[in-house]
Amino acid sequence: MNARTGLDLVIVGAGFAGLYMLHRARRLGLAARVYEAGSGVGGTWYWNRYPGARCDVESLEYSYGFDEALQQEWQWRERYAAQPEILSYANHVADRFELRRDIQLDTRVSAATWDEAERCWRVSAGAGAPVAARFLVMATGCLSSANVPQIQGRESFAGKSYHTGQWPHEKVDFRGLRVGVIGTGSSAVQSIPVIAEEAAQLYVFQRTATYSAPAHNAPLDADFVAHIKSDYAGLRARNRRMPAGFGSNMPRDEGSALAVGAEDRARAYEACWQRGGLGYLRAFADLILDQRANDTAAEFVRGKIRATVRDPAVAQLLLPKQTIGCKRMCVDSGYYETFNRDNVHLVDISRSGIEEITPRGLKAAGREYELDRIVFATGFDAMTGALLRMKIRGRGGLTLKDKWTAGPRSYLGLGVAGFPNLFIITGPGSPSVLTNMIVSIEQQVEWIAGCLDFLRAQGRSRIEASGVAEDQWVAHVNAVAANTVYPTCNSWYLGANVPGKVRVFMPLVGFPPYAEKCNEVAARGYEGFALC
Length: 532
Ligand code: NA7
Fold this sequence. Notes:
Layout: E1 9-12, H1 16-27, E2 32-35, H2 44-47, H3 68-73, H4 83-96, E3 103-104, E4 109-115, E5 120-125, E6 131-133, E7 135-138, E8 160-163, E9 178-182, H5 186-198, E10 201-206, E11 212-214, H6 222-230, H7 232-240, H8 262-275, H9 291-308, H10 312-318, E12 330-332, H11 335-338, E13 344-348, E14 354-358, E15 361-364, E16 367-370, E17 373-376, H12 385-389, E18 391-393, H13 400-403, E19 422-424, H14 437-458, E20 463-465, H15 467-482, H16 511-523, E21 529-531
Parallel strand pairs: 1-2, 1-7, 2-3, 4-18, 7-19, 8-17, 9-10, 9-17, 10-13, 11-12
Antiparallel strand pairs: 4-5, 5-6, 14-15, 15-16, 20-21
Bound molecules: ligand NA7.
């Protein structure tokens, strides 16, 4: 406990990571406070209210497993939960565990400075004086800093424009309007079919065609739910042994796509396609490891697009060329089908991008498109954006921004050399976005809670990752990525979507060995960290 403020812990962010961190800190008897920029809890699900917003991990798995009563009582309605349902769940958790009294909403953390003499962080939150806390936990999310491209003339547009990650709370009415959507990532793939039903005309500005698997979303079957809930803990445990922390109940083949003949391969892809969702990439074990295996999975999807989209020229433009899965695959409800509608127009901007935004619309592909609304589905400054937006000063005044000029460096994704008593949840260098985020969040929060408990029991007040451990960890993360197809395209995993951002593959591939390593580090008295 810090004598001056009564705070052991400041947690930044009240999404799923921040909520659970607060709960665990309380269980240790620690005094913690959460600061949240939004006016409500829920993090990504508070902000991303765009039409069609939905999780791409099944609801029975994209939920906390730490409390048996919670997971038994909460009733998910659909196989893939939509944003409002997930937000209700986050609010339910906040109420059920009485978390709100330690959450300060509408309060953005702008800076945090390590005070070596007092061994505490001084955190600037909102307009008040900095608060001191022994430990600082960043639960700021991986996809929370919107990437709004700096297109010439953006401010001149006479109509309204929106970013999918900062969507208004009231319903946006597109009826009778000419709407332009920029981007064809997951947010666009989910929103385009919904907007198309409402708008008079919808123009989709595509820089890179995307791979998307059908969700086959549907109301959850009561018998299936009862079956899962009869051994929920078992499902959670099996999921923790999966590379991405989910999908243990999906059919999968542990062999190579190249070990079977073309017909068997097509049958396997078709079965996964019919089941729907991200499990498509698990049809064979080597799809993200072997480019030739990957090519077969990619070609199968291209065949599906050709078979779905009636206009061959439009179908051709929608065919993705890059390695499948190297940008996160999308999960959709009627995305490719939407391009069969008369009011939907695909505009190829792969050559010269959006040339200019004008008061009347935008210029691209050699002409001006007149628009009433523009939707920026242009993604996020992923993984580092939210952290670097704050001025975090560590030991000797070193800023995190300066430390990370050549890309993010961390030990286990959890700690950073030069930044004592700072923990990052789902930070770069941890599996995070390559997994079911809630599984990663629970694993890391539990690790941090264990660490805080250990420090207290040992009478220690300071922990810092060593530079050597950090260097070795960064090399390890890169070496693992180099054995996969992930580094082969311009994805946000690499920071390639934000102009000027350093290209480093940020997440670690593979959840189970990571969790094992974290446990080993803890069992060895927090090996790789200096404690005092
Ligand atoms: P993504 O996946 O980063 O997609 C952003 C899309 O916007 C993508 O198609 C980009 O094209 C496009 N984009 C970005 N900047 C521009 C500019 N300047 N001009 C034209 N097009 C642009 O973000 P999402 O929000 O869809 O999804 C993020 C994650 O949220 C998703 O993976 C899920 O995990 C949930 P590009 O491909 O870079 O050529």
